[in-house]
Amino acid sequence: MSGEWVSGDFNLDDVKKAVDNLKVYPIDMHSFHESSSGPLTFADLPTLDFPAGGKIKCFVDLVPDVDSDVPKAIIKESLQSKTYEDIPAPFGMKSKATGPFKLDIAIMLQHNGKHTVIKVFHFPQLMKVDVARGLCYGTPYCFNWQGEVKTMKKCIHFVFERLGGFQCRQHVFRTSEEGKPENERSQEEWDFGFDFIEQKGPRENIKNRMLRWVTVQTSCKDSPIFRWPPVLVEKSLRNLAQDGVLAQVHTSWCLTLYDIDVRVLQALAPLFSSFSEKALGLFGEPGAGKTPVARSVAMALSRYYINRIGQQGEVEPSFRQILRPDIFDDGTLPEQPFKKLKAFTDVGNIESMSKERWGAAKWVKGQPRIYCVNDYDRNAEPKNDLPILSHRQGIISYVAHKDFLNMLEPAWCPKDKNEANVMAVLKRTHILLNTKTFLYVRPASEKETPVLRIPLDDKQDFLHLESRAAYDYHRKGGTEMPKDFDRKVAWETEWMEKVMKGDLSGLKYRCTIIKKNVFSDHVTPSLQPQLDLSHALVKNVSNLFEAPNPSSARSDMEKSTSSDAQSKPSTEASTSSDARPSKKVKMEPGIFRTLTSSQVGGAIDLDSSPEKPPRPSVVEQSLTQQLEEIMQQDEIPNPGSVDFPCGDEAGDAHDEEDQLSFGDDMDVVEQEDIH
């Protein structure tokens, strides 16, 4: 038959002739197509009445006159995540199916404004007719195979595609011609080929088994990888055999979780135990320390899993496999298709592969994965409506979910960006977004709930001051590890043991030192002896909050800081010829902190702020609630029995010129109190 197809104006022989040079292949992930209603109708499908008994494995469900809107976003998300039971009636299945199966859906608009829904089911195994009927909302039909199963299967899908409307297909057609240029292969064909390699390919090369298999499969016309580059197939098989990728494995890293700012570490604490199921996405301003945080988190997880299986000293912590978390660092996320991004972030569900210019990459199921990107819309950030006092005290607040999505808008691939794809990524990814004023934290969820934000005040670096010096030293090529590295690892190990068990009570944190010079943009050397306030704060943080009265608190603080100042004379030389007069650093007693907040984290509101988004309301304790409780702790526990030196005594910087100064006598050093 030539020309356009017209319903009722052709016979089955015409369809057989049209598909004679085609092959149909099932695919794992659905492809979505939308058009006006096509030239053919359900009556053109080769169907028969449903049998009363027996068994069946391929059938169709016809639901006419559906008087409701089509929830396309929900259908797409449910099909992509394989949660078919979430598809609302009558667009999905009436009961839950067991075992694997393929499902094609077509939804066409009728002349009366209603819709016709056609669902084609294909199960690999025979099932009872009554069970199949229980899956259907409408009238079930079976197909007339006419003794030609392969040919009729192609005919069914050929007619199905010409029904038009909104279609969700789990099949793809290929011509029988001798191969195609690579650039003409569709994404579905690549996916089907990689699935075939993963399922059928050999894992070892004994007696040239891999080479034989590649040669046969790339030369056979019926193979899904017919005419594929042999080099690509060989690399895919090698990755499968080694459970690795072609990216370099990193085993040396100078920082630990102890080096991360307390606010960031508190935000990460309730998320750690879910990193075997969810990915971590770090968005925001460049230079804040997303890369060192990602590497420190990855190495902490690697050390934890190695300790858990008792292979200390045998397996080296690194970024890869279940013992080697993956990091996608400073890549161009908007250029990555959502299909690939969802595969990367779907940590706990699937084992996936990706075709790249250099070959194939494999992501192992349960393997912690992190990505760091700078893409976000600064102009879309909601206005800072917190009172100045609340902002300085670190009072947490919330922003609307829509505003948060607007900030992330530039980070997504514009080619296939839609609500379903974005929510699919957010469902799989814990997201931290740092701007110039706030740290936004959104635990992985498909729910559109308000997003928590934490004020950053004037310290936007994710690392502690001396830890930044250590990171800069290694970034410039330094190889020597910090002198106190082993002690930090011991602290991290104890911290990780509690967090990975979900025990967030009484976690130990290292206080954050904030450097504030309100009169200059840079720190100038001073003749005045430097007070090692960070050392004093770490040693006496517990005493500050256990002081029985203000006078004793002041006495303890003054005693600590004065003794530190006497024991550590200044070694810095002045750049001015005139000696600067001696000035005192104003030290407020720790008891003053409690005047601005109640025991439950409330605050004295000195400003009439606009109404803020409501806090999430759920019955069970969610990650958001756990995070809020951590951020509202009245005090930061002492880091523990390990008495770490800080500041110039930390030993993290290896050259005197790399040491970070804590400023001059105009600087104010505070312990960060997160509410």
Which structural class do the helices and strands define?
alpha+beta
Q: Note the main sheet.
A: 7 strands, antiparallel
Low-confidence stretches: 319-327, 347-363, 516-610, 616-620, 641-675
Percent helix, as a range, is: 25-40%
The best one-word shape is globular
End-to-end CA span: 74 Å
Mean pLDDT: 73
Q: Give the assembly state of these chains.
A: single chain
Radius of gyration: 31 Å
Strand order of the largest sheet: 1-7-4-5-3-6-2
Number of strands: 18
Structure summarized in a few sentences:
Residues 654-675 have a biased composition (Acidic residues). The protein has 675 residues and is α+β, with helices and mostly antiparallel strands.
Structure description:
This protein is of the alpha+beta class and about 675 residues long. The protein folds into 3 domains: about 160 residues, no CATH class; about 60 residues; about 400 residues, no CATH class. Helix content is about 30%, strand content about 20%. The chain contains 18 helices and 18 strands. The strands form 4 sheets. Strands 1-7-4-5-3-6-2 form a 7-stranded antiparallel sheet. A 7-stranded mixed sheet has the order 9-12-8-14-15-16-13. Helix 9 packs across helix 15. The longest helix is centred in the middle third of the chain and has 19 residues. InterPro entries: P-loop_NTPase.
